[in-house]
Write a sequence for this structure.
């Protein structure tokens, strides 16, 4: 169908009007349009959201063409839209086109440069406003993403910001990006959390890592409070967090003795004056469940064996906060001769200094273990997006070569177990019934899907990175290897922003910041077990 627009005749310009060809608006097959010379060479044809938008909703803004001497349509402006539409198709198979007279080459080049140079994308604040309007009309987040071809994480971030006035104002002023504003919006109700995020931003640390630590800490506090309430419902006299903080000391009754120097029977603990219950978390180290009798001389099972990970569990501990009122004393607290008192004082000071050093090291280990668990969540979310890339980043071939030629144990193990972490990062369900991984057919599907050299390289890189990720854990920051530094260093080059604890793998020293104090405060429960003599 052709719509012809005639310019209205003006008696004073009849001759000029007759010389100007009328413009037409047509719907053309993009594959039939001749792609004319264009100053733009990079069409970014792999832009996923753009291709998806063209395929689902078509070309919304008309391209510009002219007719050559043979009557064929030659493209002037809209090269990216036309090429993409020809590749992925449109709902109608056609695209709108505006037909104009053929311009002179100088005009064509100038117009093409102006069109691309002065084109500006929507500001993130404008995207938020648009998403908000669609949401107010009852359009779901999934439908917003489909209608606009904006990726779902961006839509979710925009929706989060619409509900947080302070974060939205900062986005509008340009102080925050949309991703940053969404993180601040999540914690806008918590001034202390916002302050930590501000510090992370000020020191150019990863907001994603800090936000995940805040989420994990909140979940831990919620679990702690639930356990306290459960034990309180059973009638136990539980110490509150405020009482613990205000107490000069929290001493386990089991480590105290009576005035006669005898330990107190457990059934008598509740009768001690001022006795209360402190809920602590203690590490549990599972017994080695490896059955040595199964050994038949081969090393096959011993190579696959992995010891069970230690875990923490809640333990109600009877304690006193006022030793004098309890009628108990520390072990070895009396009966010493005057002659030995000086030596005992010196020994006690040395012992206390040693205990303090142990407490500091324990605080560091606990804090880093928690930080590593939080970082793992962020890192694996990033890796899930990374392995979905169409092409491998610069330097990927060298990493692949090193892993394969040296036969690194992480890759060998992943291959033996059929790449369980690779399936996790790809978001593919692993079939049941296979030992520690997917079946060979599922692995074959992943391999055969990579049918081009670029895809095969990226899939192999994904397997190498996933194999390394599968071997990481809380032990990684304690004993980082050269391969840890190699892989994590490559990920950093490719855009990953590591947390402070992950930087240990790169050989960087941990910075000393004010948040060390908050880490120590979080570990009061662990220290309570060491406060008794």
């Amino acid at each position: 169908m052709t719509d012809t627009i005639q310019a209205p005749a003006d008696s004073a310009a009849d001759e000029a009007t007759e010389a100007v060809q009328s413009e037409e608006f047509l719907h053309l097959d993009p594959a039939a349009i001749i792609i004319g010379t264009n100053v733009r060479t990079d069409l970014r044809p792999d832009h996923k959201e753009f291709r998806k938008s063209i395929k689902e909703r078509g070309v919304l803004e008309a391209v510009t063409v002219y007719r050559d001497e043979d009557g064929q349509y030659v493209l002037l402006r809209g090269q990216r839209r036309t090429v993409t539409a020809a590749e992925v198709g449109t709902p109608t198979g056609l695209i709108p086109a505006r037909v104009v007279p053929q311009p002179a080459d100088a005009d064509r080049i100038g117009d093409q440069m102006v069109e691309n140079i002065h084109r500006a994308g929507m500001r993130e604040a404008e995207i938020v406003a648009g998403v908000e309007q669609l949401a107010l009309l009852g359009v779901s987040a999934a439908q917003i993403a489909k209608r606009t071809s904006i990726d779902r994480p961006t839509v979710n971030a925009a929706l989060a910001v619409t509900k947080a006035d302070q974060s939205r104002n900062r986005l509008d002023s340009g102080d925050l990006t949309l991703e940053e504003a969404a993180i601040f919006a999540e914690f806008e109700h918590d001034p202390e959390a916002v302050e930590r995020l501000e510090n992370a931003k000020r020191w150019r640390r990863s907001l994603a890592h800090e936000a995940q630590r805040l989420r994990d800490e909140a979940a831990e506090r919620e679990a702690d409070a639930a356990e306290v309430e459960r034990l309180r419902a059973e009638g136990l006299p539980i110490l509150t967090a405020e009482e613990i903080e205000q107490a000069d000391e929290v001493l386990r009754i089991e480590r105290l003795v009576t005035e006669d120097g005898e330990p107190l029977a457990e059934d008598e603990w509740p009768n001690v004056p001022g006795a209360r219950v402190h809920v602590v978390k203690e590490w549990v180290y599972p017994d080695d469940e490896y059955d040595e009798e199964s050994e038949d001389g081969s090393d096959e099972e011993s190579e696959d064996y992995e010891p069970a990970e230690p875990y923490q569990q809640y333990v109600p501990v009877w304690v006193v906060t006022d030793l004098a009122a309890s009628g108990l004393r520390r072990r070895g607290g009396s009966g010493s001769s005057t002659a030995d008192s000086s030596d005992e004082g010196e020994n006690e000071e040395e012992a206390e200094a040693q205990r303090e050093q142990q407490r500091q090291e324990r605080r560091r280990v606990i804090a880093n273990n928690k930080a590593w668990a939080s970082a793992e969540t962020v890192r694996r979310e990033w890796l899930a997006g990374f392995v979905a890339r169409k092409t491998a980043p610069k330097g990927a071939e060298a990493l692949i070569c090193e892993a394969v030629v040296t036969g690194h144990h992480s890759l060998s193990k992943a291959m033996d177990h059929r790449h369980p972490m690779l399936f996790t990062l790809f978001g593919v369900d692993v079939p049941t019934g296979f030992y520690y991984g997917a079946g060979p057919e599922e692995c074959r599907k992943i391999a055969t899907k990579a049918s081009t050299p670029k895809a095969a390289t990226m899939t192999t890189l994904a397997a190498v990175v996933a194999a390394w990720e599968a071997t990481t854990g809380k032990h990684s920051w304690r004993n980082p290897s050269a391969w840890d530094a190699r892989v994590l260093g490559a990920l950093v080059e490719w855009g990953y922003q590591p947390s402070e604890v992950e930087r240990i793998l790169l050989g960087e020293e941990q910075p000393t910041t004010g948040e060390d104090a908050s880490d120590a405060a979080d570990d009061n429960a662990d220290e309570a077990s060491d406060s008794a003599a």
Summary: The chain has 24 helices and ten strands.
